[in-house]
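Batch manifest, entry 17 of 40.
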Amino acid sequence: MTRVSTSSNFGVMTSNLMLAQVRQNEIGEQVSSQKIASDLKGYAKNAEMLTAMKSAQAKIDGFLDQTKLVSNRLDMQDTGIGQVSDAAGDAREAIANALAAGNATTLMEQLQNAFGDAVRGLNTKSNGYYVFSGAKTDTPTTTATSMADLTAAPSTASLFQNDQYVTTNRIDESTTVKTGVLGDALGTDLFDAFKQIQAYVDANGAFSGNLTEAQTTFLKGTLSSFDTAQKGLTTAQGKNGLNQSRFEDAQTALQNQSDSLTVMIGGVVDVDMAEAVTRLQAAQLAVQASAQVFSTLQSSSLLNVLK
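Output type: C-alpha cells
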C-alpha cells in the first residue's frame, strides 16, 4: 500500500514555507532600502560603533553648516570693505584730478558720489542683517546720507550706530576666530577726511570753476587724509581675507571628514547589492520549492487514497 503523509509533515512544511517567506521579505527590504537593517537592533555588535560614528558626523556637519554661513558673511564683508575702500580711492582721485587741471567744476559732485558709495558699503547686509553693526544687526551701521551730515552732526562718532561687539566664530572644537568688523573702525578716518572738505565748503563756499591758490593749498593737504583712510581699509580687507581663507580651508577639511565618515558608516549599514540580489533570488527559489512540496503533500492524504 502506498505510504501516506501524516499531519506532522504538513506542520514541518508549513513552518519551512513561512520561514522562507520571512527570509524573502527581509532580503527584499534590504534590496529595496539598500540598508542592512532599519534600526540599530539589526546591526548587533556594530550598533555602538555606528552610534558613535553618526554622533561624530552630526557634530562635524554642524560645524560645516556654520562655516558655510560664516563664509557667506565674510564674502559680504569683503564686498562692503572693498566698496568703502574704492570710495576713498575715488575721492582721492577726484581731488588729484582737480588739482592737476586747476579746475574743480565737478569736484563736489564726484565727492558726494564717492561718499554715497562709502555709506552703502558701510551699510552692507548679509541675509538681511547689517554686517558692520556688531550685535545690532537690525540697525543701519551709519545714519549719514550726505557730506552735509558730517558737519551737522555733533561728532563723527555719533553718525555710527554699531555697538562694540565683535563677532567670534568657531572653526572647529578647539579654534575660535574673531570674524566681525565694526563700522566705526572702518569709516571714521574716511568720514573725517570728507568732513574736512565739507567744513571748508561750509566756511568758504563750494568749489567751482578754476581753483584759487587757497583752495589748491587746502585740497593738497586733504590728500594724505584719504591716503591714510584707504590704507586702513586695505589692511582691514586683508585681515578679512585671511579669515575667508581659514574658513574655506576649514570647510574643505570638514567636508572631507564628513565624507570619510559617510563611507565608514556605509561600510556598516549599506548592503552589498550584488550579494543581496543573489540572496534574494535564492530566497525566492526556496519559497517556490517549499510551496511546491506543500502542494504535493496536499494531494498525499488518506482521503485521496480511499477515493
